[in-house]
Structure formats: structure tokens, C-alpha cells
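Our collaborator T.R. sent over the components below with a one-line note: 'Predict the complex.' Nothing else. No constraints on interfaces, no templates requested, no preferences about which chain binds where. So this is a plain run: every listed entity goes in together, and whatever single assembly comes back becomes the starting point for the next discussion.
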Amino acid sequence: MNLNNMLLMRHELILTTVILILIIADIFTADKNKKSVNYIALGLFALHTVIGFIPLKTGTLFGGMFVTDPMVYGFKNILNTGVLLIILLAISWVNKKGLQNNKVGEFYILMFSSLLGMFFLISSRNFLMLYLSLELSTLPVTALAAYDIFNRKSSEAGIKLILSAAFSSGIFLFGISLLYAAGGSLYFSELEGHIGHSYLSIAGLIMFFAGLAFKISLVPFHFWTADVYEGAPTPVSNYLSVISKAAAVFILMISLFVTLKELKDIWIPVLYGISVLTMFTGNLFALRQKNLKRFLAFSSVAQAGFIMMGMLSADHLAASSVLYFISIYIFSNIGAFGVVQLVALAAGGKENIDDYNGLYRTNPMLSLVLMISLFSLAGIPPIAGFFGKFFLYTSAASKGFYVLVFIAVVNVTISLYYYLLVVRAAFLRKSENPIPYFKSDIFARIGLIIVVIALFLLGLYSPFYDYIDSVTKILNI
Amino acid sequence: MDLTYTVLIPLIPLFVFLLLGLNYKRIKEPVSGYIGTTGLLITALMSFYTAFQYFFNYGKAGGVYQKIYAFNTEWIHFTDTLHIDMGILLDPISAVMLIVVPLISLMVHFYSIGYMHKEPGFTRFYAYLSLFTFSMLGLVLSTNLFQIYIFWEMVGVSSYLLIGYYFEKPSAILAAKKAFIVTRFADFGFLVGILMVSYYAKTFDFKILTDLSFIENLKMQSGIFMGLSVMTWALIFIFIGGAGKSAMFPLHIWLPDAMEGPTPVSALIHAATMVVAGVFLVARLFPAFYFFDDGFALNVVAWVGAFTTLFAAVIAITQNDIKRVLAFSTMSQIGYMMLALGVSGFEGHEGLGFMAGMFHLFTHAMFKALLFLGAGAIIHAVHSNYMQDMGGLRKYMPITNITFLLAALAISGIPPLAGFFSKDEILAAAFENNMPVFIIGYIVAGMTAFYMFRLYYRIFWWNNPDYEHKPHEAPATMTIPLVILALMTILSGFIPFAEFVSPDGAGFHSHIDWSLASASIIIGVAGILLATIFYKKESELPTRFVRAFGRVHKWAFNKFYIDEIYFFITKTIIFKYISGSFAWFDRQVVDGTMNGIGNGTVWISSKIKGLQSGKIQDYAMFFISGVLALIMVAWLLFN
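Returned assembly:
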């Protein structure tokens, strides 16, 4: 390994550097200047995001444990953009909460560390590496969930997340060991084609799947989702609902489509059932929620069900449509959570749907962003979310899963109802004391503008889909 | 000939929408009205020019009207045959729509300057109107199924905004939501149909999908499902989408409620343009409807149309809200158009039904918009929607009276007004091809005349109540559109429509068959006479009649309780039993344990209790049982 090869890890190396600089900066900044840590973090991360777009060589490291190809680094760039948006939206929040307990730098250090874990996760082509990076990505988030130490709910969320995560990673590790027993290797490349049908390999497959399903919030591994999203600070819920979910879907797709493709006849029916279960559970729970964060939690559970539908056809089209959907989903959810976070910060923790009555009168722009994000989640054209869903339908329909497409369509209709409830509250309802007008800081505004532009552009500007379609050709399906 | 300029036709309203929508606080009444109307005038002139040029100049090649792509660009590429385009398609039916949509929209824009005077959100109203016009034009000019779907949805969104315009009124919000959700539900049928077409036909393109040799080929290849070709199923699904937008039974429940929107909106959306989108969609795919499985899907269209036309006419007779009478009348007339398409053949004179359906779409747009705008003027004058509050208005509102009368005569099928010609062609087509459908159509013609004149007499004659404020004629901005539409109602029947619009594009000569025409005039006149006896002067007669019919009247008055049936299904079954039980689980099992813990303890102890509350253990138990269940299932699959 020489320096040239190390450059394959450029994303990870730069991010590690950013984290190190932040630790030092945090130590050396006087308490009264803590605010500046925000800007250092933002600046460094923006730089990191931009550098990420410089093309990379393709190759493997550490004997095939770590891989870089256009699909992987393309996806890393998408994750980078998502995290950049999350921190743009979060700065005002961190300033308030972080300064209270003197922990500004910690927020960024933890979030970037978790992101580093995600990077290794999607690059890993070895089950042990995958396990380690999964842990690296989870542990910092549990600390982040408990970041708001003066809030009981936040601490509760942290505890719940770490216990559930520990439990699921135990099962995950057991699944990996069974796969090792069945196939005789931990390397994806060596397992491919050597993992025949046996009780052992199937049990391994399911446990491995359960570990990732936990991260993606698939039913019945989703129970932590609502409690943690509700209790955790909103920027952290935002991160959990998009970045963490997206990375897990990515690696689940690679491992199922490529490494475990021999077991297709097993995992396709399993995914089918999980998909139906997840869509219905997410939607029916979301219908009755009063708290917006809990509502978004169940909505994100339902969205995960749609993603599983897209994976069923297990081919090139499936990979493209899933990645395309996820990229759009990231922006839609960041927009929705972003608005919730800004409102809660400005109006003193108001998070119920009823609190949003009459929001359009007082904060028209914010309401529009909320509407566009929710419409994107609901899949209403011409907003990007519609195209995302459309490709998922196409993918499932191309292998003849018509019944499932029909079920999905029924679910979209249900979901439309509850998304409209929120839009109705903001736009059509009147309130005696609506949330007063407030001005968000410049960073949050930039963040939301980018989200809105992306929500139109990703759908209407077709080269984006073409790009995803071209990079997924690398997959050896 | 370079036709790229046609792109501007839909884009100008879009531009106006953006201009007004982004500056809605800065641009005030009436400037926004002038901007909107001027923008639409330009669009309308360009549309008329394009339609005229198409019909008389370059549309025909070899005696047959061609489908011309004025503009087409590939947008998303799947395979060489399957790709999504955006473009502008000119053919006889889109050219007809290029006359109808901008004309009615222009009238409504102009009329609303007076009608919406001093309404809060005047600018917002014009922004929405422009957005709607853009979407509707995009819909009728679409070159492919996917494009039409996108505009179809945008039409849905903009009509949602317009119905819910009076957002202070809870009923308006409910109506908007209902319209949106019911039509969306239908639209998913449309989407499933599109997916099936894309899979079996491997193209979205209208030119290819309606090409006869392509259809012949596809007939050979496409699979069979439950005795019918898969393409027939796809077309039926697509028709579900059309039936939702066009308020066909049983997806009609949103239309009467949509009358909560401002009256000009009802004229534009719920009379002339959006609600006929379903008819347009069937006409657009007519060759496919006609040729697959010997027109099985087309038969479905005919019967759904026939049933709806009768069903709506019965209800219309019993309603007292003048806008609701018009709404059910619209439903009934659209049923007529569907019926006409449904009984049509393909070649030459056989295509009479197709032509008659499109002709009726055209004439109906004129006189129904006139009726709605007239109703708007009346509501504006007496501040009520109910006919009980009206009567004797002919003295106060002469222009409205005469134009309303003309429109009522037209819809009753009295010559020489427009409705007579188109309705007569529909009846003739049904007579030749489908006797039961003809009989339904014939009876409905009489009922239409009756309820329209019931409406007319109750508004303008009946009695002379003492009005608190003397009703007065509407301002010129409102009466000028009435007069223009009245002229169209008188003249448009004389257009030799069959020369221009026919399924095969070749055109044919249509003659009025006077034996049939006189029969239809007779039943129309009979309906009017009956209404005159009942309603010209205030009397006890109608009440006695209603009493005699007792239960039947009550059923019809309550719209046969279709709304209640839906309500029962959604509210009681879905929400209460299904969603309710999930919510119960969430509350009792998930939250219940947590609620049991006292709130008085300090947070650190609650943290420890959170550990031991059993909640996390519950989660873990669900997790592990999920894993075990999945392993069982997977092992069963393996065996």
C-alpha cells in the first residue's frame, strides 16, 4: 500500500482530519467564543463536501475489505450533501442548546464520527469490516440522541437507542458468524457463489438482515424509531431518519444483490412480506399521531416499506430506482424535519400538528417549504418524490409484482391523507394564537432553499437519474 | 412550418402564475385581474390561430387529419422505445380543446374581475386560475401518457386550491379535500394502467399507441388475463382515472361538494374543462379502446356513461341549491358524452358517436359555462344559493334572464341552439348501435328539459318575494361574458363538426335524421311544458307531487346515500376498526407501560426506570420474535 492507494480513502481521510481539527479547535476555544466552533465546523465540512466531488480512482484496499468505485463515492457525496444541509439547519439550534451546556464542538464531532462510520459501512466488502463500521456509525449517534441533557426525553431516547442498537448488533454479529460458518469466508468476493442453501446460511441471512432492518426501521424491528425520533433533538432525528437509513439501505442492497444473490428465492419473499407489513404499519400508525416528530417517524417507517418494494426485482433497474428514491427522500425528509426544528426552536418546543394551525399566515415561506417537502414524501408530481416513487413502482412492476404495486398504491393514498392533514393545518386552518412570525438565521435559510431547489431539480432534471443509472451498472448482478 | 411557438400557449399562463404567485402581496386588485386576463387573452389568440391553421391549412395530408408533433423533446430515457417525452401534440381533438379551454378560461378571467371584487386574496385567485389554465392546456396538448398524467395531477392540485379558495369556510376545505382524495384514488387506477401499458406496449407515445398496425401487432402478443387481453385491463384502469376526474358513478361524490368554490371556478373547472378530461382521455386513446377485445373496454365506458347520466338526472330534479342542480346536470351531460364515445364505431360515418361526444363536449362547455356564470350573477344579486330565496328575478336581471333562458333551451335540445345538434347526433349514434343505451339517453333528454326549466322558472318566475335589498343586474364585466357565451350557444351548433373531428381523421358528412330529431324535440318540449305547468306560477302542485313520491324523492334528494356509504366504509370500517385497533395497540401496549411510571421522580431515576420499565424489553422481545418468525418462514420457503 502506498500513498497513492491510500487516496482511495480520500473521503474518510479528510473527514478524519476534519474531526481532529475540530477536537483541537474545541479545546483551544475559550468558553465565551464557543460560537465560532460552529463556523469552523461548517466551513471545514463544506470544504470536505466540495472536495468529495473531485473524481476518484476505482480500486480496493486492505485485501478487498474496502472498495471505492463511482457508485460508492457518488453515494458518499449524496450523504455529505445531506449532512451539510442538516448542519446548516442545525446551527441556530446548536448555538442555543450547545452553549447552555458548553458542548458546541461535541455535536459536530459526534455527527462527523458517525458519518465516518457510514462511509466505511458503504465501502466495506467484508462482513467484519461491515460490523465494525456499523458500530462506529451507531455509537456516536446514541450519544447525540442524549445531547440535550436538560431534557428528560432526550436522555431517554439515548438510552433506548443504545440498548436497542446493542441488542440488534448482537443478533447481527451472530448472523455474520453463521454466514461465515456456512460460506467459510468473511469477504464478499469469496462468499459470492459459495453460500448454498442450508438451514445455517438461511438463519444467518435473516439475522444479518434483521441487524440492518433495525437501522432502516423495517417492521418488526422499528419499535425504537418513534420513541427515539420524538425524544432525540430534532437535528439528530433528522440525521437518523435520512443518513443512517440511506447508508444501511445501500449496504443491504449490495450484500443481497451481489453477495447473497444465490439465496434470492429466500430473501425476495421475505422482503415482500416485510415491505407490505412495513407500509401498512407505518401508515396506520402515522394516521393518528399528534406530535409531528412521531408522525414523521412513522412516515419514515412507511417510506422504508416502499424502498423494500423497489428492491424486490433484484436487478439493475432495482438498484437505480432505490438509489434514486433514497437521494430524493433524503432531501424531502431534511426539509420536513428542518421546518419542524426551526419552528420548535423559535416557538419554544411546539411540535404538535395543532400548533401549526395558521402557520401560513405568519410564516408563509416556511409553510411552503413544509408543503413541498411533505408533497414530495407523498409523491405528488411534479415534485421529485413522485418520480422516486414512480421508479419504485416500475421496478416492482417489471418483475410482475402487480399485487404489491397495488398495495403500495393503496398505501400512498392513505399516506396522502395524513400528509394533507399537516398541510391543511398550516394552510387552511385558523388559529387564535398561531406561531408568531420569526426569522431564521441565514444558514437555515440557505439550507431550506437548497432543499427546495433539489426537490424540483432531482425530479425534473433527468441527467441525475441517468447518472445514477450509469453508476449502478458496476454492480455484478 | 415551424410550430415551436405553440410551446408558449401553456407557458404564458405559467408565467402569469409565477408573476402573481410570487408577488401576491405587492400586486393588488384590480391590477392582478388585468394581468391575468391579458395573459390569457394572448394565449387564447395564439390558441385560436393555431387551431384555425391546423384545421384549414396544414392539418390534413391525403385527406386525413394527421397527428402533428408541434414540439417534442425526450426527457427521460429508459430504452430506445420506452422514453418519457414532453411535447405538444396537434390533432383534431386537441385543436378543439385549444378553442374550448382558453375561451372559457378567458371568459372566467374577465367575469371574475367583477365577481371577485373586494374579495380578500383577489391576486391569489388569479394566480390559481392561471396555474389551472396552464395545467389544463398541458393536459390536452400532451404527446404521451406520462406527460398527460403529470398535467392530470397538476390539474388536480390547482383545482384543490381553487375549491378550497374560501378557506375560512370549513365546508370548502372539506370539499377541496374530498375532491382531491377521491380523484387521487381514481388516479392511481390511471397510474396502474400506465404501468401496464408501459410494460406490454413498451411505449407511452400517443401516436404509436393509436396507430392501427401497432395495435394489430400488440393484439397478437399481449397476454390474456381472465379472458381479456391485458391491454383491455390497462385501458379499464386508465378509464378509472378518467371516471374520477369526470365524476362518473361511483366516483362522482366529490363534484356536488366542489360547488363550495367560487362560482366562476365552478364554471371553468366543473363545467367546461377539468371534468371533461376523462372524456378527452377516452377520445385520445379511442382506437385502443375500440380495437382491443372488440371494444370491451369501450362497452364499459358506454354503460358507465349511460348509468351516470340517468342517475344524475334523477338527483338533479330534486335539488334546491341552484349550483348543485347544475353540478348534477353536468354529471349527467358528461355521462352523455361518455355514452356517445362508448357506442361509436371507427371508420367513416360509423364514427358518429365519437364525433358527437366531442361535439357535445364543445357545445356543452359553452352553454354550461353560461349557466354557471349566470348562476354566479344571480347568487351575487340575492346572496343565496337556494331557489327558495329566489323568484321573479326576470324583472331585475333582464340580461341574465335571457342568456340563462337560451342556455336552458340549448341544454334541453331545442333547435336551432347548439345543444340540439350535438344531442341529436348522440341519440342517433346510440340508436344505431345500442338500443338500451338509446332508451336511457332518450328518457334523460326529457328529464334534462324538465329539471332545467324547473330551475329556470324557480329563479326567474314562480313568485315575487319581497327582497330586502333589491336585486340588480350584474356589472358589465360580468354580463359581457354572458352575452359572448350566449352568442356561442346560438351559433356553435352550425359548425359542420363531423368534417373536422372523426375517429379515423378523414371526416364525413353528417345529416340530421329528422324522424329521430323530431322525437328528441318532442320529448324536450314535453319536459319544458311539464315544468311550465309545475313551476311557472307558485302553486301547491310540486309539493303534492313530492308527497306522492315520498320515499323515492327522499332517496333521490339525498343522492341515493352514496356519500353515506363511502362515509361508512372509510370512517367506520377503516378508521375505527383497522386504524383504531392499531392506535389502541400503540396507546395501550407501547405507551401504557410508560404512563404507569410516576412522574414525580427525578429524571435520573426515571432514566433507570426507563431501563427497567419493560418497554425496551418489550421492544427486544418483538425484535427477537420477529427474527425467529422470519427464520421459520425462510426455512419453510427453503423446504
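Summary for T.R.: The first strand of chain B starts at residue 60 and ends at 61.
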